[in-house]
Amino acid sequence: MVWAISIPASTANLGPGFDSIGIALDKYLEVDVEIATEWQIDNLSNNLPDVPNPQDHLIVQAAQKTAQMYGMSLPPCHLEVKSEIPLARGMGSSASAIVAGVELANQVLNLQLTSHDKLKVATIMEGHPDNAAASIFGGFTISSGGEDGEIHIFHTYQIDASFVLFIPNFELKTEKARNVLPESYTRKVAAQASATSNLLIAAFLSQSFEQAGTYMEQDLFHEPYRLDLIPESRDIKIAAKKAGAFGTCISGAGPTLLSLIQKGTEEVFISNLNELFPNFELVPVKMNRTGIVVSKKKNASDLISPDEQMFFHKEVVL
Asked: Which domains does the chain have, with CATH numbers?
């Protein structure tokens, strides 16, 4: 039996929604899993880490951690991995790998985990739920981890937005992006930043994208500190606005930037900016609405009947 696991990329924060807002993106990490006599990982595309020892691979570590948490032992597996998600670019590559590992253990060991179960496990390993929530549920998510270990989440697929990613040819490690942030904020700053986040959410849920774009660019939690780590980021925000973007923000911890634009204007928007920023690849991207998708195969090339396939996604909440 081979399990084919597909996990979407994600963007987080959207400016002021720091560590809580996530959107699943139409870029994917795909893993084919087959039980084997020893661990083996075959990279079938770019955007994947070179990890000689499978035990050091994040997918394997997440799978083994999940098995351990449920008191079980995971057998060795042969993994064939493909990815459209660039590493260390603020598109949730680590969260997607962790979610893939959680789902691997769920399938191989028949744990029958719910989406909330998977999010709890992924959050323990990731540290915060925003990217993992988007990858698991799909769509637009708002999530928060409580001190009791519970994860509170709202998600909806009823947001018909269009985005363009500015993906740079350089990396920015999340740890470095975290280290530039202040340890605390004044009450005045925190209140204003939280209010802006609330307005951003309301604008997205009401499909008021022009307003949403305005609030995307008014963050006080992290963007004022991280923009200087991303060369040309301030110039990109100005140029994107002139080219018609509602707003532009850092995707996750960066260095990718994300513009919210009018649907149907993607090609014109990109053509107007492409030559201005040669160190960035401009990529149109849609919101993913499925989250995790799993299908079973008899072998690496033959899919079983559709009635036997297992697809994991949530119904619309809003």
From this structure: 2-157+288-308 (3.30.230.10), 162-285 (3.30.70.890)
